[in-house]
Design goal:
Elements: H1 7-15, E1 31-35, H2 43-57, E2 61-63, E3 70-73, H3 84-87, E4 91-93, H4 96-103, E5 112-115, H5 122-131, E6 139-144, H6 147-160, E7 168-172, H7 190-199, H8 201-207, H9 226-229, E8 235-241, H10 250-260, H11 262-270, H12 278-291, E9 293-303, H13 312-321, E10 327-330, H14 333-336, H15 355-360, H16 365-373, E11 378-380, H17 382-385, E12 390-397
Parallel strand pairs: 5-6, 5-8, 6-7, 8-9
Antiparallel strand pairs: 1-3, 1-4, 2-3, 9-12, 10-12, 11-12
Helix pairs in contact: 1-11, 10-11, 12-13, 13-16
């Protein structure tokens, strides 16, 4: 496939030290789908769904060990439309690498979760299932700056979410400055909502007019009330699956040859039309997600890029702004726990190998300490993991020690080396 890559994309790969041979494995990768509402299903129901999917696909279909609900379809060319389970809403297309990023958050029932870059919605749907509780439901807030993409999320939620759609709200907003806090604790209690409206009529009016930009673009009635939208609580979990160049998504890269044209791949890699470098945008998304995370909470930063500039150097810049008394990069449970059963192999992070590289990338003696702090982050390389490429970092907010970092400081490590 890489024989067709335009010069701009080849230059991008060289600059980022990405071996073009990674794209040779594309045809040999399986296709992945996820069983919706997996935990609510009986073992016999799951087995029937697996057998039906295997029949429809005409090839081997197996459950992915250690990553609940995911199925591996041996033939990558299988289309979702030919699967009965997809038509019925029981299956959704989702690479298992994205599932691992979601599982890294360790969402518990009742958690308030923020998905700061939520489109096209597969991760959002899984987060909603994990946050759902029959007694005191949590909530999932999805944000995307494109109305078209947020509409795709809405369609997916309507088709697949079932009862969990009742805890999802969507905002068409810029994730770098999104400021709406988590819903109030009893947002789902109609009695509490009614009492609040009677006691705070001014807030109710304001929520319908002057602060309409803080109202959800899509939400169930109780999640769009003035009561739900006027809280000050921070989120228990935040996912920043940041916008990136998608060079680690081999399926995405293949679409340039099949649909969009290889010349468009060159424009994407070069950042043509962007107002700021991708790593700077990612750094701002990460910083805003962190601001909205409660002390003790967990944030996952992930990309489907293999670029060090979009992964380790963004994370390193973040850690340089937040000391080890504020932020701790923790092991990813599926890779760290011996009893997880996960058979997908992750690789260590990239780090400079020579003294020259250490100096070239930025902070001198401080740099080694930063890379030591991020050692528990992980890379999924298609040649090893048999999945799409992915970078995943799980970060714990140790305390509420925000320094109020100004915008001009929100940059990745070694930004000068990217210009």
């Amino acid at each position: 496939m890489y024989a067709n890559f335009p010069p701009q994309f080849l230059a991008f790969l060289k600059e980022n030290h990405i071996d073009p041979s990674v794209y040779d494995v594309q045809g040999g990768l399986p296709r992945y789908v996820r069983i919706v509402r997996y935990k609510q299903r009986t073992a016999s129901e799951i087995q029937r769904l697996v057998k039906q999917t295997q029949h429809d696909a005409g090839c081997t279909v197996t459950e992915v060990a250690g990553v609940p609900g995911f199925l591996e379809i041996a033939d990558q060319s299988v289309k979702l439309a030919q699967l009965q389970g997809y038509g019925s809403g029981d299956l959704v297309g989702m690479d298992v690498s994205s599932g691992i990023a979601v599982h890294a958050l360790s969402v518990a029932p009742g958690d308030n979760v923020l998905d700061l870059c939520c489109a096209p919605g597969a991760k959002l749907l899984l987060l909603a299932e994990q946050s759902m509780d029959t007694i005191a439901p949590g909530s999932v807030t999805g944000v995307d700056n494109s109305s078209h993409r947020i509409a795709t999320c809405r369609s997916l939620i309507k088709k697949h979410a079932g009862r969990t759609r009742g805890i999802v709200r969507l905002f068409a907003a810029d994730g770098t400055n999104f400021a709406c806090h988590a819903p109030r604790k009893l947002w789902w209690d109609a009695q509490a909502v009614g009492a609040f409206a009677q006691q705070n009529p001014a807030v109710a009016v304001a929520a319908d007019s002057s602060v309409a930009n803080e109202r959800p673009w899509f939400a169930p009635r109780l999640l769009s009330t003035a009561y739900a939208c006027s809280g000050t609580a921070l989120y228990d979990r935040v996912l920043v699956d940041a916008e990136c160049t998608h060079d680690g998504s081999l399926v995405h890269i293949r679409k340039y040859g099949e649909q969009w044209g290889w010349e468009q791949l060159g424009s994407q890699a070069s950042g043509s039309g962007r107002t700021q470098p991708v790593p700077v945008l990612q750094s701002r998304l990460l910083e805003n997600g962190w601001r909205l995370l409660k002390p003790g909470g967990v944030l996952v930063y992930s990309t489907c890029s293999l670029s060090r500039f979009q992964n380790e150097l963004v994370l390193g810049g973040f850690l340089a702004r937040h000391g080890d008394d504020e932020a701790s990069v923790e092991p990813i449970p599926l890779f760290d726990e011996k009893d997880s059963g996960c058979e997908i192999e992750a690789l260590p992070i990239w780090k400079p190998e020579t003294d020259e590289e250490w100096v070239r990338h930025g902070l001198g003696s401080q740099l080694r300490a930063l890379f030591q702090r991020m050692q528990h982050a992980a890379r999924l390389d298609p040649r090893v993991s048999n999945t799409s490429g992915m970078f995943i970092a799980r970060i714990r907010k140790i305390g509420d020690n925000s320094k109020g970092t100004i915008e001009t400081e929100i940059v990745p490590l070694g930004q000068s080396s990217m210009t």
